[in-house]
Amino acid sequence: MSTSTRARISLRTLALAYLLLVVLIPISMIAYRTFEPGFGAFWASITTPAAISALQLTVLILAIVVPLNAVFGVALALALVRGHFPGKRWVHAVIDLPFALSPVVVGVSLVLLWGAHGWFGGLESMGIHVIYALPGMVLATIFVTLPFVTREVEPVLREIGSEQEQAAATLGASAGQTFRKITLPAIRWGLTYGVVLTVARALGEFGAVSVVSLGFAGQTQTLTLLVNTRYSADHNISGAYAAATLLMLVALAVLALLTVVDRKRRTL
Amino acid sequence: MITVTGASKRYGEFAALDDVSLEVPAGSLTALLGPSGSGKSTLLRAIAGLEHPDSGTVTIAGQDVTGAPPQHRDIGFVFQHYAAFKHMSVRDNVAFGLRIRKRPKREIASRVDELLGIVGLAGFQDRRPAQLSGGQRQRMALARALAVDPQVLLLDEPFGALDAIVRADLRRWLHRLHAEVHVTTVLVTHDQEEAMDVADRIAVLHNGRIEQVGSPQDLYDRPANGFVMSFLGPVATVNGSLVRPHDLRIQRERSAEAVAARVERVVHLGFEVRVDLHAVDGGAAMSAQLTRETAATLGLRSGETVAVIPVRRSELTDLPVPAAVA
Questions:
Q1: Burial letters for A164-185: b for 16+ Cβ neighbours within 10 Å, e otherwise?
Q2: Nearest Cβ partner of B79 from A167, A181, A186?
Q3: CA torsion A232→A237→A241→A247, rounded to 10°?
Q4: CB–CB of B86 and A186 under 8 A?
Q5: Grouped pLDDT means (10 residues each) for chain B, 326 residues
Q6: Chain B residues with CB-CB distance to A160 below 8 A
Q7: Which of A96, A115, B32, B116 could bond to B40 as cystine, CB 3.0-4.6 Å?
Q8: What are phi and psi of A62, to 5 degrees?
Q9: Under a CB-based contact definition with an 8 Å cutoff, are residues B223 and B300 in contact?
Q10: Can you tell me the ipTM of this complex?
């Protein structure tokens, strides 16, 4: 605590320089390159049929994955913190598995499971397409983003303890009322942060999604896959930058939306 | 009235409650007194429905609530660490139970204001629990528990987390409140002084069993066993029987019933004087409590040998004998 002023200032400078170097400069580069050819070119490049379809698909996947993972993530955190059941340690380990596995491996395993020759391949012959279609992409995204909400909510639940919930019960609140009025407001920040991380990861997921979708333009191509395709296959560098900027705008839009929802809930 | 019959609760090998039966008369303020691990909190939580005994029954106001969840027991519960709803204002905390019961808005508002007045928190409606002191938080918690007009009020070491001055203040305040509201109240404490100060009845618990139930004076004057006697106040052993320190007389003349003891130390505690003694034969340590006048008249000096006479000895012999209790 007795760091000298000079040491403190140089530490801060170092930390800021690091942030600048690894985060801000690359992002500014993308923004600069995006708008270098002019706004018209940018607009043209993000309104091609492939880009519009990719944007829609990306938002659709988010709209499915985020609520599902928020609900099940909170339920899982509650079970882990408040519940007593055999195999709890085992569940703890399994939740972290998506962090440990390479996304490409996740994609391959999904293909093995749901593909035409997989265990659940029967669905394919019934005309229900999972792999190279939306359900497979959703499954892959859910898998890689599974731990975020649970891991953010869990420590908060542990910290607030169960006394407030017990107090609510003695005051007549049902389990549902206690959850809505006591538990949910208490875990709000953890949940919000978990959702933000889920959104970020879902938007940026490449490995698992590209294996299960193959990224057909206009069909199974998300924005992240579009950036990659334009960059490495089409050699459309400025198009890739434009798509990347669009991706960042989606992320910012979701963040803004979350802030608004959160503020609204606080005033209720 | 609360009746607990044959309640037992085991955690593995540990018996938190061992066939406990207790009656709490309507309108009384009963203290469950015992050392930690004696089962007093478990018993209280069993009455509240926060804990489910392995066997036994609980009735509140004539209704068997053994299988009922806390929501349906018509109770108010106050926790040691307040359990304040941190994200709500003081007003919303107190109004919680009434809102759950869907009472009209105007009724809720006036009831909340009335209760905050009773607990001395008028004008604190818009504060957050974090902006209150510990004592204020606990009074808010009491108002919250009382808001729904519960049949019984259950307090789990309510003053345990507060400092001595606030604790004494709240004790007096709780006693007054009970005299006004007259709700059947059960208070858990490990502090015998608190139990004797606040309660009109005390149940002493030890190792998951009830050792004795009675008025504070009953328990002090006629303890059922050595454990109760020693838990309710200091005890000396003289010639194998138990004596309160203030029932020991010290004189210089020897007599048949007296025990010879050496004065180790004379401690002036203000309103009383404590004399630490050592029996000459056997060497048991004991303390005697004297008034200032007696001590001044005697003029005791450490090192001298005096005669100690038990003026009023209990029939009880020997210290803690919980196993011998039927």
A1: bbbbbbbbbbeeebbbebbbeb
A2: A167
A3: -30
A4: yes
A5: 95 93 95 94 96 95 94 95 94 96 95 92 94 94 94 93 86 89 93 93 96 95 91 85 89 86 91 90 84 89 90 69 39
A6: 86
A7: B32
A8: -60, -45
A9: no
A10: 0.85
